[in-house]
Amino acid sequence: MLQIILIIVGALLGLGLLTGIVLTFIVAYIVYSKTLMRGKSGSWGREHCSEPGCVPLETMWERGLVWKKQNESFIKEVSIKSKDGLKLVGEWFDYGFDKTVIILPGRRETLVYSYYYAKPYKESGVNVLVIDQRAHGLSEGKYSTCGLKEAEDVSLWMKYLHDELKQKEIFLHGICVGTCVSTLVSTKYKVDYLKAVILDSAFITYKEIYKNHYIESGHALFPVYYEIWMWFSFFTHCNINDSSPLKYMDKLDLPVLFIWGDKDIYCLPEKSKELFAKCGSKNKQLEWFEGAEHSRVRLNDESRYDGLVSDFLARVA
Question: Which pTM value belongs to this model?
Answer without folding.
Answer: 0.94
